[in-house]
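Complex 438.
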Amino acid sequence: MNVLLIGNGGRENALAWKLAQSSMLDELYVAPGNPGTMRHGRNVELDLKDATALRKFILEKKIRMVVVGPEAPLTDGLHDRIAEDPKLKGVTVIGPKAAGAKLEGSKEFAKEFMFRHNIPTAAFRAFGRGELAEAQQHIDRMEAPYVIKADGLAQGKGVVIAQTKDEAKEALKSMLGGKDPASERVLIEQHLKGIELSAFLITDGEHFKMLPSAKDYKRIGNGDTGPNTGGMGAVSPAPFADKDFLGKVHDRIAVPTVRGLRSDGIPFSGFLFMGLMSVGGEPYVIEYNVRLGDPEAQAILPRLRSDLMDLFEGIATGTLSERHVDTDDRTCATVVLASDGYPGAYEAGKPIVGLDLVRDALVFQSGTAMHGDELVTNGGRVLAVSAFGKDIEHAIINCYRNVSVVDFQGKYHRNDIGLDLLRKPAPKNGPAAPAEVK
Ligand code: AMP
Ligand code: GLY
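Predicted structure with adenosine monophosphate bound:
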């Protein structure tokens, strides 16, 4: 089967690497891809909004499956455009149509969905442009910390956790008073205190399979300090997500989510990422994403023993329930190497050396480019190193050993990925669930 993979990040490099291992794959095309995906398929330039060009490419290359890595093409209706094209009948898209992608594209929509289907999440109120005064009054009735979120896609920059009323009101003013379409509506949420983790499932809309869980590290600095990033590292599995906890995630979140999508008449195919908070051992949904996480994908796909193409074929034929998800028991640790300055301004074009010295680890590229035959940096997050260990400690040691041999000018990474998990914070001894949480 010929497959077109959409995206150019580390997640897509991991997807390309995994798909290329399948005996079911003939040709893999990646649009636009990066130098890392080039090792597993052919990178192509394609304007996804140009329906004619897309159709021509799919027909010419006999593409049977389009796998969408990032959320933007999905919220933008890529799946809808392919499904509505009579010439593209029989092409499966891994990733939901725009109606399903709204779970990620609109936080208010996601919240209403969760409340409608009784899925545990933080209480919230939403306010629109012109309701700044009401929103600020709402803050007066709450206690710190205040969670303020832009409704729309804001590339991880749409959430402010304010410690004071003044800070919260200022955030509301800049969001509701600004011009960014992502913050045309704003949510004020109850603050959940606990431990975060990412859970994933794959679904054909009817049935679903849970994928390995992971913990990601969003802040730029050691000890979870500094601004939020796309993600600076990940560990899979999240050790505190034991069988009991994952059972709750399955029963209270995954089952009602897939059932809810069905009963709301929202077809959904592909990955669903549940950003969770474990509050005293009880899972709450912070957000949904309609894709795999980055860098979580670089930690969970290496642990997936099953053939990913076989799972995708299960989606294509509505037979996912007959497929198996087989997981490697070992721990995988992933550390992102970034350009100094990220998530702010950084320099690009720095030669990357040492990849040939990597042993017993995987390197997935994201912000890289070829300069002649030289691999150079070309983004904030440059690459991710993923390594296995029989437990977290060994995975971390193996990973950092390999992180140390790869180099480029301005190389920056966190030194503490996974270290907090060695201290084994037991969620059961964590803070109690707030009484008024739905
Ligand atoms: P989001 O973009 O919704 O995932 O939010 C970004 C980050 O803000 C999350 O990863 C959490 O660390 C934090 N956050 C979001 N919502 C809440 C909440 N209701 N309570 C506590 N922390 C939150
Ligand atoms: N690592 C978080 C995300 O992909 O959204």
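The longest strand covers residues 270-279.
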